[in-house]
């Protein structure tokens, strides 16, 4: 015995199952346009959800809260660093180092500037030595007599120029006039001897030269040393007008047409000038090659 209504329901269910199987078979192939559209909707809603008013899964309120938290965090961090730097600068003197592990000996500097410390020039060819003259003239501008008399004081020679007082008090500097260099001042001979094969080279400390190929050297000042009155040096903050003393070497008789090595050393108490693995500690070495 069959029930008519029950048979109809069974037929409808079988029809639905067949439709679902067909849809599943179609889904196993390429995605339909509806599937792509659904994925695009999901991405769009993630970027901006108008119902919940969320962007990238966050509301404007949560983003504002995050910005406020980060602002106060970095502001506190900057305040702590600034406070520690302020406390550090309170205990450190800008005029002299608080701690020193090793004080290196003073070095030696020469002028005019020469690449590789080799002085090569031909007396009869001005273009080979003109740049040396220009370098010396530029370097000695700060040593002009009028400028030194205006800025610095005339000190007695042979003694240290000690200046007591507060460390932040401005210090005076002793005069070192360009005229002290005499034949190497560029005032009497504008070419500093390069036009005659008798070049002048300026040093910034004591010097002792070679004995063989350099037969005659004149020193200015004649003592070939740096007078004590130019020391101590109190630093650039308080010793504003300080002018470094110089020693000029006037090579009046040097072997021509060959390289002549010259070594200048600092001599003084506590000065190191014999370090084997560093030939520029307390000394300087250069070469003269004068062609005729």
Automatic annotation (TrEMBL):
Membrane-topology descriptor: Single-pass type II membrane protein
UniProt keyword terms in alphabetical order: Ion transport, Membrane, Signal-anchor, Transmembrane, Transmembrane helix, Transport
UniProt key word Protein transport: no
BP terms from Gene Ontology: potassium ion transport; regulation of DNA-templated transcription; sodium ion transport
Composition bias type Acidic residues, residue spans: 1-27
Region annotated Disordered, chain positions: 1-32
Membrane spanning residue stretches: 65-92
Keyword match Cell membrane: no
Compartments, record wording: Membrane; Nucleus inner membrane
Gene Ontology cellular component list: nuclear inner membrane; sodium:potassium-exchanging ATPase complex
PANTHER family membership: PROTEIN ATP1B4, SODIUM/POTASSIUM-DEPENDENT ATPASE BETA SUBUNIT
Role: May act as a transcriptional coregulator during muscle development through its interaction with SNW1. Has lost its ancestral function as a Na,K-ATPase beta-subunit. This is the non-catalytic component of the active enzyme, which catalyzes the hydrolysis of ATP coupled with the exchange of Na(+) and K(+) ions across the plasma membrane.
Family to which this protein belongs: Belongs to the X(+)/potassium ATPases subunit beta family.
Protein name: Sodium/potassium-transporting ATPase subunit beta
Species assigned in the record: Cricetulus griseus
């Amino acid at each position: 015995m069959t029930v008519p209504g029950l048979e109809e329901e069974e037929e409808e269910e079988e029809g639905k199952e067949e439709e679902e199987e067909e849809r599943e078979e179609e889904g196993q192939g390429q995605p339909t346009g509806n599937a792509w559209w659904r994925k695009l909707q999901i991405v769009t809603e993630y970027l901006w959800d108008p119902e919940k008013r969320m962007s990238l899964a966050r509301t404007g309120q949560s983003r504002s809260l995050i910005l406020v938290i980060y602002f106060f965090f970095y502001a506190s961090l900057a305040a702590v660093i600034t406070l520690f730097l302020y406390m550090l600068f309170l205990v450190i003197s800008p005029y002299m180092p608080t701690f020193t592990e090793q004080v290196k000996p003073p070095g030696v500097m020469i002028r005019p500037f020469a690449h590789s410390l080799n002085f090569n020039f031909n007396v009869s060819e001005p273009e080979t030595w003109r740049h040396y003259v220009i370098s010396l003239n530029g370097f000695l501008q700060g040593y002009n007599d009028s400028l030194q008399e205006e800025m610095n004081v005339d000190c007695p020679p042979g003694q240290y120029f000690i200046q007591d007082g507060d460390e932040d008090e401005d210090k005076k500097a002793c005069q070192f006039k360009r005229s002290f260099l005499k034949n190497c001042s560029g005032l009497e001979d504008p070419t500093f001897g390069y036009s005659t094969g008798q070049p002048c080279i300026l040093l910034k400390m004591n010097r002792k030269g070679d004995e063989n190929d350099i037969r005659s050297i004149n020193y200015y000042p004649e003592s070939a040393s740096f007078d004590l009155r130019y020391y101590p040096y109190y630093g650039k903050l308080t010793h504003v007008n300080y002018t470094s003393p110089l020693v000029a070497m006037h090579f009046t008789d040097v072997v021509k047409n060959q390289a002549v090595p010259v070594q200048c050393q600092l001599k003084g108490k506590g000065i190191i000038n014999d370090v084997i693995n560093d030939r520029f500690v307390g000394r300087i070495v250069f070469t003269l090659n004068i062609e005729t």
